[in-house]
Amino acid sequence: MENRQLAYKGMPFSREELVEKLKAALTDSRFQHVLRVEQTAMKLAALNKVDLQSASIAGLVHDYAKQRPDEDFILAIKQYHLDPELLHYGNAIWHGVVGWLFVKNELQINDIEILNAVRYHTVGHEYMTPLEQIVYMADYIEPGRDFPGVDEARKITFANLAQGVAFQTKQTLSYLVAHNKPVFPQTIVTYNSWVPNSGLDKE
Ligand SMILES: [Fe+2]
Ligand SMILES: [Fe+2]
């Protein structure tokens, strides 16, 4: 019964059927990650009064496109006339910013809130909805994550979702700069919207 309720989000199938599709599309370790993101997203959704089924579906599908070959993304960028600037990046950016189109077309998910949560889960944007914030954060702090600062990230996020977004955005930008990596322009927009005045401690 519980699984059938998920179908109301416009999907023609149950959670179990969706899980099978993800299992087929992902390596086992990524599939396990996706299940943990779903659980973390649902906890954050309960805390922040966000629809649990949206959090479940968005958590499950957020990395659906992660294992796709580059050619699929390049073709989609051209086919859908997306910003050609995107061609200078790679899977880390594409699997969300472009991958949501595969989620829509192949998993038949039409809920725009869920699709946007997939779209922005890596780069964020200026006005992230609570569901978008939840997927962005669940991906970062799910129990399998292990990096310096992850416990602090969890503590902050469970206390204050928006401050969690600020924390992750700052860490990501600092990491990219420290490693001389390119910064996707949207990440800077996210930084400017979420980090100053967020109440985060300064280092
Ligand atoms: Fe991802
Ligand atoms: Fe992920």
Automatic annotation (TrEMBL):
Domain HD: 30-144
Enzymatic class: hydrolase
InterPro entries tied to this protein: Diverse_Catalytic_Enzymes, HD/PDEase_dom, HD_domain, YqeK
Keyword Nucleotide-binding assigned: yes
UniProt catalytic activity: P(1),P(4)-bis(5'-adenosyl) tetraphosphate + H2O = 2 ADP + 2 H(+)
Protein keywords: Hydrolase, Iron, Metal-binding, Nucleotide-binding
EC numbers: 3.6.1.41
Protein name from the UniProt record: bis(5'-nucleosyl)-tetraphosphatase (symmetrical)
Lineage: Bacteria, Bacillati, Bacillota, Bacilli, Lactobacillales
